[in-house]
Design brief:
alpha+beta; four-stranded antiparallel β-sheet; 45% helix; globular
């Protein structure tokens, strides 16, 4: 009889845990989804901390990865052409302000890569010419990680000297008005 009670108690406890897992948390807002012109779900006004990556289907993941890869390839072409205006247009206003700040420019100017070449960054265009062009012109996106259905982190996967795969985060992107924008 004691074993039956322990068994029954275990079953009831497991059922309670499972029912809690499947019940939405009333404190967290559910994502509001709609469909854009390409019939893909998009989340509106959903805080990133409530995002559940399980809602991303493999088809949606593949579609967004292809979009991001195309965006980065187009951006790389503009960077290789040293098109400052196109690069600037790909950045969110907040991110452009961050990379343009005198604190950011002076901190980068003190990096060994720039001090050995005696480069001092004074303007965002200096940053573009001396940092972005040499380091970002030939990047490729191998994977993305969803922060929300409209925000992703883009990664390049390379191998280190030991032959181990290393994920390098290239950009944080957000789809704003159906256009990918670099936010960090």
């Amino acid at each position: 009889m004691g074993i039956k009670i322990v068994f029954l108690t275990t079953i009831l406890a497991a059922a309670a845990v499972i029912s809690c897992i499947s019940t939405p948390d009333p404190k967290k807002p559910e994502p509001v989804t709609h469909t854009d012109r390409e019939s893909q779900p998009v989340v509106s006004h959903t805080p990133a901390e409530t995002f559940n990556p399980i809602v991303v289907t493999s088809e949606y993941h593949s579609s967004i990865r292809a979009e991001v890869q195309q965006f980065i390839e187009n951006l790389n072409q503009q960077i290789r052409r040293k098109n400052y205006t196109a690069w600037k247009a790909a950045l969110s206003p907040e991110y452009f302000e961050e990379v343009s700040s005198s604190e950011h420019l002076s901190a980068l100017s003190e990096s060994p890569a720039l001090t050995t070449r005696k480069i001092v960054l004074r303007t965002p265009q200096d940053y573009f010419e001396h940092v972005v062009v040499p380091s970002r012109a030939n990047l490729h996106v191998d994977d993305i990680e969803f922060v929300s259905l409209t925000r992703v982190k883009a990664f390049s996967i390379t191998k280190n000297r030991a032959g181990e795969e290393v994920r390098l985060r290239l950009y944080d992107l957000e789809k704003i008005n159906n256009t990918w924008t670099i936010i960090n």
